[in-house]
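ligand=nicotinamide-adenine-dinucleotide
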Amino acid sequence: MRLLVTGGAGFIGSNFILYWLKNHPEDEIVNFDKLTYAGNLENLKSIEGTPNYKFVKGDIANADDVAAVILGIDIVVHFAAESHVDRSIHDSAPFIMTNVAGTQILLDAALKNNVKRFHHVSTDEVFGSLELNDPNKFNERTNYNPRSPYSASKAGSDHLVSAYYYTYNLPITITNCSNNFGPYQFPEKIIPLAITNLLEGKKVPIYGDGLYVRDWLYVEDHVKAIEAVLDKGKIGETYLIGGMTEDIPNIEVAKKIVRILGKSEGDIEFVKDRPGHDRRYAIDWSKIKNELGWKPLHDFDTWLKKTVEWYKENEDWWREVKSGEYQKYYEKQYNNK
Ligand code: NAD
Ligand code: DAU
């Protein structure tokens, strides 16, 4: 099989490519990525020069780039996106261009080239926010209710993917996943931000009251869920993917990281809240478990420790990432606490 992986130089895309080539050495992968601030070919250094792996620099929102790269492709695995909520609050335009228009251009190209599968990687944020005491979790029947420009753009992309199935019979699948953590995550996201700030002797900024809850999933579990959907998923279907943790408020996540690194709770500071901040996400992943046999295998505490170790051992990687453009973003986001 020839796979086109969009956004393969980002956090989850690069973990997917490394896993896939190890476990499916008979397949070929073309990694198509614009290399925005979040794309980093260092993540894929270990497979550079592998005969069944190729990198092509390009933009999913550019029809010519896409037309050239999609020739001969069997399966599209679509990760490419602008992915950070806070950046979407500063400027939503790139989110609409990449996440909505880019997905539409990719869908047209997939249709024209008769791809066997178009798998769209999406987020639980499209469902909006749960109350802290709500016994219900998000499931495949939950109504869409996006509340940030990022989640609205991902919701738009999900609807387009679904529409291409109903209107043109494009063989699609969609997954909506909760918050990932693990190696190669860009340090604008809370877990790598907390780890690397503490390693640099800086404080961990916690928004608002710190009692916001995310459903944490180790990135390899996400990759394996996508593998299960590509292997056994039913065309036209959506599957929700989530972690094995009970609710852990952000402040507790920060305290766990502080403890792992032997720092003090005084290294955590409360800062101005995110506008429209979703209170809680929680996923009911029984459909993918019952129908495809997937469940999360990595518990939060063990894999948080391993993730902290990874950042300690890969200081060159994150120091490089945190220089340059990142500094300007950090100032804009956090300077008036
Ligand atoms: P990321 O920001 O780390 O990586 C995104 C990648 O897409 C980068 O390599 C970037 O260069 C590339 N890209 C951006 N715009 C592009 C364009 N126009 N053309 C081609 N490439 C482009 O993101 P991530 O955290 O790895 O997320 C990957 C996907 O998974 C996204 O679609 C995101 O919405 C979804 N998702 C993420 C999470 C999470 O917790 N990180 C959870 C659920 C779903
Ligand atoms: O739920 C899946 C989503 O998870 C993905 O679709 C997104 O691409 C990904 O970025 C992530 O979104 P979040 O907004 O939940 O992740 P983030 O790491 O930005 O924030 C996690 C929580 O931590 C959230 O409640 C906001 C809070 N936070 C975040 C930052 C960056 C802080 O308290 N302080 C911070 O500095």
